Structure formats: structure tokens, C-alpha cells
Amino acid sequence: MAEGSELCYFDLRIVHDNFDKALVQDDDVDIKAYLDAYNELYKFFQLMGSVFSFVSSDLKQKIDILVDLLNKNDQNYVTIKSMLEHEKENKLIEKSDNVNGARTLLRLHRGLDFIREFLRQLGELSDTDKTSTCCQDAYNKTLAKHHPWVIRKAAIVAMYTMPTREILFKKVCGANVQRNVDILPKMLEVTADVFNRTHTLYELHQLHTLP
Q1: I want to staple 14 with a disulfide (CB 3.0 to 4.6 A). Which of 40, 93, 97, 159 is the partner?
Q2: Rounded distance, CA 147 to CA 82, Å?
Q3: CB of 29 closer than 8 Å to CB of 197
Q4: CA separation (Å) from 47 to 7, 71, 92, 152?
Q5: Is 11 exposed, middle or buried (0-12, 13-18, 19+ CB in 10 A)?
Q6: Which residues, 6 or more positions from 190, have their beta carbon under 8 angstroms from its beta carbon?
Q7: Smallest Cα–Cα separation from 85: which of 197, 198, 201, 194?
Q8: Distances (CA, A) of 171 to 3, 15, 42, 53, 155
Q9: Is the dihedral angle over the CA atoms 18, 24, 27, 29 positive or is it negative?
Q10: Residue 4 has what pLDDT?
């Protein structure tokens, strides 16, 4: 493998470090660090190919929308708390034609629920175990409840083609499988902290049911 080629692979340490950085004071979440971690998670879906197409294209679109909001250097979009307060106070969430951060980040939040549950179950498998069953279980517990029947059916069928844990890790991590396996427990801990903080902020503003 040529020097630097591992950069095209998935690195859970990047996810861990950025989610850790996202945990700022006052039980808040830094949006830029959140998106930096999420971009690395999105790379996982890209490396897996068409099996995750039911979620990957939607995630990329949502990440790009939030990056555009951040690039405007509006201080209201530095953290999740400031974003929700700003959009609620200015009635930006109520406008159906408005591309707002609250609705967009909620989609990423739901996606993160699936990703962390899948990676958690993946960590409990042996190398020779098929990953399809745990992926289907993670999906049914999380994202499936937000998807129409047609997408749910297609997603479950696509997951039947998923490989063993050993092959999956080699596909997405290249030569760095052990490094990713070693950091997985700590990455899941910090991801849970970010997820729970985000969930609580949406609960406080009663925004979990945004269409």
C-alpha cells in the first residue's frame, strides 16, 4: 500500500476525537466538530457501497446544508443550543419552504442513532460472524421507524448481502483494522454523550417530531 493511501479509509479515531471536541460547556454540542466527525462516518457508508445507499445520499445532502449554514459565519450556528434557540425565536422552523438547521440536524441525529447501534453490535461479533443480522436489527431499532415501508423493505433486502465482520472491517479500514477495533469502545462512549446531549436539546425545545 502506498504511503498515505490509508487516508481513503475509515478512521474511528477521527470520529472519536471530533465528537470529543464537540462536547462543549453547558451540555452543548459544537456543530463544526459534530460535522467533522459525521463526515468520517459518512466515509464508512461510501466504502460500503450501494448496500447503504438508502441512507448515505440523504446524509451527504444534510451535511452539506449545515456546512453552508456554518460558512455564513453566523454566530447563532456555532452550537446546537444556539441554533435551536435562534431558529425557534425567529420562527424559522415553522416555514415549510425554509431550509433550517434544526430540521436538517435532526435527520443526522436519527442517522447517528443507527450508526452507533450498528457499530456497537459489530464490536460484539467474532470475525467470522455475518454482519447482516446485526445491521438489520440496528436499523429496525432506529432509522426504520422514520422511513416509509418501501425504503424499509429495500434496506433490509440490501443488508442480506453484507459480509462477515472481518471482511467488512478490511473493506472500510484497510490495513488499520486493529487500530479501529481498539478505539471502538471509547468512540462509542463519546458518541453516546454527543447523541444524548443532542437528544436532550431537541426534547427541551419539543422538536423531535419535526416533519
Answers
A1: 40
A2: 29
A3: yes
A4: 12, 27, 36, 21
A5: buried
A6: 16, 19, 20, 23
A7: 201
A8: 18, 18, 14, 17, 20
A9: negative
A10: 40
23 sits in the region (left: phi over 0; alpha: psi -120 to 50; else beta) called beta
Q: Running along the chain, 211 residues long, what does each successive block of 10 average in pLDDT? A: 54 97 96 97 88 82 93 92 94 76 94 95 95 96 93 92 94 92 96 98 93 74
d(CA 120, CA 125): 9
Report the distance separating Cα 93 and Cα 97, nearest Å.
10
Helix (H) or strand (E) run with residue 75 in it: none
Q: Alpha-carbon distance 93 to 30, whole Å?
A: 20
Beta bridge mates, 23: 29
Q: Is 91 left (phi over 0), alpha (psi -120 to 50) or beta?
A: left
pLDDT at 97: 59
Number of separate helices (H) and strands (E) present in the chain: 9, 2
Reduce the DSSP state of residue 95 to 3 states and report it: coil
What's the pTM value of the predicted model, to 2 decimals?
A: 0.92
Q: What is the pLDDT of residue 98?
A: 63
Cα 160 to the chain's mean position, in Å?
22
